[in-house]
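[job 0412] stage=complex_fold ligand=magnesium ion status=START
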Amino acid sequence: MSCDAFETLKKRYLTLRDNGLANTFKIQDAIISSIRVFLKSEGFTEILAPIIGPVTDPGIRGAKQVTIDYYGVPFKVMSSMILYKQMIIASLPKVFALSPNIRLEPLETVKTRRHLTEFRQIDLEVAYATCEEVMELGENMLCHVIREVKRKCCEELGERGKSLKVPRKPFKKYTYNEAVEILKNMGMHVEYGEEIPWEAEEALSKAHSEPFWITNYPITARGFYYMENERKPEVLEDFDLIYPEGFGEAVSGGKREHRYERLVERMWRSGENPSDYGWYLDMLKAGIPPSAGFGIGVERLTRFICGLENIWDAVPFPKVAGVPSP
Ligand code: AMP
Ligand code: MG
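[job 0412] stage=complex_fold status=DONE, emitting structure tokens
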């Protein structure tokens, strides 16, 4: 990111008057409304997202959590509401929230053009669902949103309207192993067992003209809350959706580990101390239904649909690593 771009973000009160940005936010409004209509037609209930709590999602690849002093008790600002989704599905089996998240991403993420430190997810969860079921839901949701935006925002989309296509279903699926192999053939090395690095993810995304899934990440690459595959130990029942054209990751999700003993083991293994997870472990002991779900970043979806170079133009008041903007 150049110093100019830095300064521009700090003077958002001036650049916000740019007409291109007004169009983006009208499209964003259509994106959010169409997701709500879609999910409600699928039987989901929208709930209010938590903003703070004693625990939050630890699986945030190198980003730092923010801790506040809550009357003498350390509280986290939500990095994602995954643990809370597991709480609510006991009473509402299909839920979603427009959930704000804070993650102090590493400084080098300014170069990815797809990382903010404050962003929002449409975060959803379905009791007793399989990965395949929520992945199909994700495909239908993305197709619905793009169709609706093309219909309602023809003028605001401008030239992007021509290249933005409603994707073909079903989306292609690669396992993590297959994705790593493809990357190897593209000359990019990914250490087995690790997250796919941002540059490699972008390169793979650039090599596609339709969105695609990467499934079954190794247990060492992800948070403790994804369920391990019964038949393939060390492999998770999880998935990412990747946008085409270099826009990178859209969605992460999977089936959740809901069994107390297994989860405690997984916590130790991923370097988390179970004693830091008081209410969450008490809840698992009391018993919760199995579930699957995912989160889709709203700003990344806006960036993809509008064809924007930088994610910070997909949010009115952007927060980027290291930039103290309004
Ligand atoms: P994660 O739980 O890290 O996979 O995040 C879920 C989704 O939120 C991702 O698939 C992205 O769409 C979005 N997301 C995650 N981190 C960021 C970030 N730093 N900036 C913008 N969007 C993000
Ligand atoms: Mg992810």
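The pocket of adenosine monophosphate (ligand 1) is lined by residues 60, 80, 103, 105, 115-116, 119, 121, 249-252, 295-297, 299-300 (CB under 6 Å).
[job 0412] exit 0
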